[in-house]
Amino acid sequence: MSDGESISMPTMLTPDITTERLLLRPFRETDAPAEFRAAQDPRIGALCGWRPPESVEESLETIRTVFAQPWTWAITLRQAVKLPDSILADNPQFAQLRDVPRQRFSVFGEPVETVEPEGDGHTVIIPADEPIGAISLQSSIGLTDKDGKPLDLSTHDQALGYWVAAPLWGNGIATEAANALLKFAFTHTEIETVWGRFKFGNAGSQAVMRKIGMSEYGEDHHHWMPLIDEYWDEKIYSITREEWEAQEK
């Protein structure tokens, strides 16, 4: 994808996007085990409005349907990264590792190889090119205006959605990926406005949207989340092409 090349939504292209640390790429069916390990943490679904997968087969079905939509990317790392030992204490999926010495583990608890112990005897790593989340631009937004009426959006409006594996929260992964998608949207497509929404109290998503230059548009109260059969109050954020270009100068 060259600078200045414009991609319209009907072409359904999902090009690889590279940042300093990340490679955003289309999902593959072989990603199912890693996607399951990343998405099964209930803390993620509780913020995104979906139930965690219960099996690798369920994750595979998600990859074949939801993640097969255009402009949906797996978030992966370009190089393997070591995580601090505190990850073991902060994330429940690592509880079983405390008594397993002299091994190195991937970020979701899979043994990689036997190595000399470091610190408490464990080294937790994130392998390169393994999905650690997902990010997308989608036209099915379900947004309402400031009076609660459905917004009449065109193909020039897209919604930004993302999630990142819980052990990686606080490392700027979502911000870096979202910044890359804004650049893609406003330099290579016909998109004029990117929208975002998050549940009241989701300080992490609010911080990400503010960091990438989005501003609060309004609120959507009693919004039905069909995947979990709940009603949420949500904040709505947005950024236009003009606003993005101004902040890039």
TrEMBL record:
Coiled coil: none annotated. One of its GO terms (molecular function) is acyltransferase activity, transferring groups other than amino-acyl groups. Keywords: Transferase. Residues 81-238 form the N-acetyltransferase domain. This is GNAT family acetyltransferase. The keyword Repressor does not apply. It comes from Aeriscardovia aeriphila. Pfam families: Acetyltransf_3 (PF13302). The keyword Lyase does not apply. Gene3D superfamilies: 3.40.630.30.
